[in-house]
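Exercise 3.2. Students should predict the tertiary structure of the chain below and write it as structure tokens, then compare their answer with the key that follows.

Predict this chain's 3D structure.
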Amino acid sequence: MTPARRWLAGLGLAVGAYALLGAVLLNLVPSDAVLAQRLAAALTDASGVKVSVGSVHWQLRPRLVVVVQNLVTDQPHPVVLKKLNLYPDVSALWQRRIRLGLIELEGAVVPQQSLRRLGGVARLGKPIVADTSPEQGGWTLDELPISQFVFQDISWVSRSGVAVLYDGQADFDTNWRPRAVQLRRPNAKLATDLSLSRLGQQDRWTVLLNAGGGTGHGELQVQTLTNGRLHLTGKLQPKGIEVASALQAFNRRSVIGGQASGTTTLLADGLNAIDLAGSLHTQTVFTMGPSTLLRFDLDKAVRSLGKAHDGQTRLDSVTGQLDTQNTPDGMMIDFTRIKATSGALSVSGKARLFNRHIDAEMAVDLVDGIVGVPLKIKGPLDKVTVSAPAGAVAGAVVGTAVLPGVGTAIGARLGAAIGSLFGPASASAKPQTQASPKR
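Answer key:
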């Protein structure tokens, strides 16, 4: 046989094998319409929310791929997956095992308030058709159901309606353990990304974080408890992160500008990764050097007793503790042990942010003026109100008189305490004082 004939014979065998594979897959894989119906029914059953699927089709060339388009949940703010490319492992298909070498997600809208209402999770490792075993014609999930997940143009919408785009990918080991994860904020002015890398086969990952021109490197660890629940712990070292720029990368406005450094610890518990994310608690002890309150003039607020506060405040230094807690109703943010200096001003206090509302208390010392003025800040972030309790000035002056030269911090505490005594109670006492001469 001449080389040309041998080449043609080999080509014929290859074409024949490819045609045979196509014929087998035609028997194994249902039609596009049946696939769409089954997928919509399975997702509806798993999530507890009606799911519609625009179309499902599969093709053999240049490689086997199933394309799912316009997957939408029936909710007031629907979860939308625009295009999913699923690349099955052909060798696993022969054994009726579902194993995807790659999933590509191109475009999605994921509202936080809708995601939390999805009621169920498919039981991993169980057959997903009526038959209960491959021998009986059923299909099961492989030990490694997904090898790689790549996504782009994913819009995460917070409860307050703030949308943030993400790109990234995740590579998996068995038992749904991520081997490597990358998460990026495209088009951010400064590099904003997160990378996780698994340490061998341990449930530990190194963390590399870039945000606001700084870093936040560290390590995470997950323990599987005796009851099957997962317990996550971690520690990061934020360093040189410009707070306003970092928040701007996530379409958020910061109340302060300046570089922050410190130590962050993380804790979470749950049955799976979704539970861990939903229960995540972080605690950061931070320090900042020269900084700026971007939309609050502290001196003006003190001198006007809260009647005016528009402007900015230059700060020499800021220290404190920041706690965040994910909840079903959003993230709760607590600032405690706050201490700041600004020239003649010394400030201490605490604040809570939740659902775009603030509730804060501060004690402000003025070295060359009124000492120990307490301020309260409340309301929605776009329309806060600032007030000083009744009698605050009198209490502050008494604090200065009682402890001259001892220190503004002590004066502030005494002034705030005495100011509270001259607060609501003094209003009811005042009419009695005015009425006594008439008797």
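Discussion points: The longest helix spans residues 3-28. Residues 2-24, 120-132, 394-439 have pLDDT under 50 and may be disordered.
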